[in-house]
Automatic annotation (TrEMBL):
Organism: Ramlibacter ginsenosidimutans
Name of protein: Crotonase/enoyl-CoA hydratase family protein
Family to which the UniProt record says this protein belongs: Belongs to the enoyl-CoA hydratase/isomerase family.
A GO MF label: lyase activity
Key words of the record: Lyase
Pfam families the UniProt entry points to: ECH_1
InterPro entries associated with the record: ClpP/crotonase-like_dom_sf (IPR029045), Enoyl-CoA_hydra/iso (IPR001753), Enoyl-CoA_hydra_C (IPR014748)
Lineage: Bacteria, Pseudomonadati, Pseudomonadota, Betaproteobacteria, Burkholderiales
Highest taxon in the source lineage: Bacteria
Length: 258
């Protein structure tokens, strides 16, 4: 449990399951719920090595709670958006990799939240939209930064200008999700992936969460140096040495064609 009635936290071994639990409102993100997501990722127990982010009911998340959208002056709007940024940063740059289990509506701020996760699994009922354009507003939860990195600025521009909705299959092709599964199977696939992620050396997961996205944004000459520094740190960990030894001495699994 968390301290917010609309957010559930379960611990399953070394995986945390964080679930938006406001199905009657399609998991719309009130300010309180956004802050509860932040708090949940900020205070995961030390034993947790990966997380799943899920939504109760037929929809992952309907985005910003529009009933709270009131007249704000520019300063208040700025702070509101920055509050979302702070919360979603805790998801992206929190303690552990997060696998999103997508189904039904993944729209507006719900898509921004999904984009802050590290892996997205979508089931066949998933659809993606950015209705901000139709509501006369703009993204404010980091979507302008994260969504173009998934699908490109041209697709995002089209979605916001025309209200285009991507269905699950074309959404996977466009880059919203890395996995597409049958209806009702997003959570179980996400949990299986999170358990696999939890087995990695912690420093490898750290490098993938914290170094890779920054290296990808650096000019190549700086990126190569950052990569070399991260590689040197990761390979020096006792856990890395043990894993390499295990492979060389025939105790670790080979890469298999699947
Ligand atoms: C909501 C919200 C919401 C549903 N805020 N209450 N997001 C949107 O513009 C998407 C708005 N929602 C929808 O288009 C649809 O609700 C869904 C496609 C997600 C789901 O449709 P459906 O038919 O299953 O549900 P529904 O009947 O539309 O909604 C059920 C209830 O949830 C209903 O309340 P009720 O009291 O009449 O039962 C809806 O009002 C309520 N509900 N979505 C508040 N979003 C950081 S900036 C981010 C900016 C944005 O995210 S803008 C995009 C907002």
């Amino acid at each position: 449990m968390t301290s917010h009635p609309d957010l559930q936290l379960e611990i399953d071994g070394d995986v945390a399951i964080v679930r938006l639990n406001r199905p009657a409102k399609r998991n719309a993100l009130s300010d309180g719920l956004v802050l509860a997501v932040r708090d949940a990722f900020q205070s995961l127990p030390d034993t947790v090595r990966a997380a799943v982010l899920d939504g109760s009911g037929d929809h992952f998340c309907a985005g910003l709670d529009l009933s709270e959208l009131k007249e704000r002056d520019a300063g208040a709007g700025l702070h509101h958006s920055r509050m979302w940024h702070g919360a979603l940063e805790e998801v992206q740059y929190g303690p552990v990799p997060v696998v999103a289990a997508l189904h039904g509506a993944v729209v507006g701020g719900g898509l921004e939240l999904a984009a802050a996760c590290h892996i997205r699994v979508a089931d066949a009922t998933t659809f993606y939209a950015l209705p901000e354009g139709a509501r006369g507003i703009f993204v404010g939860g980091g979507g302008a930064v994260r969504i173009p990195r998934l699908i490109g600025a041209a697709r995002m521009t089209d979605m916001m200008l025309t209200g285009r909705v991507y269905q699950a299959e074309e959404g996977e092709r466009a880059g919203f999700a890395q996995y597409l599964v049958p209806a009702g199977e997003a959570f179980s696939k996400a949990l299986a992936l999170a358990k696999r992620v939890a087995e990695n050396a912690p420093l490898t997961n750290y490098a993938l969460m914290h170094a890779l996205p920054r290296i990808a944004e650096q000019p190549a000459d700086q990126g190569f140096l950052t990569e070399a520094l991260m590689a040197a740190i990761a390979q020096s960990a006792p856990e890395a040495k043990k894993r390499v030894r295990d492979f060389l001495e025939g105790r670790a699994a080979k890469v298999s064609k699947g």
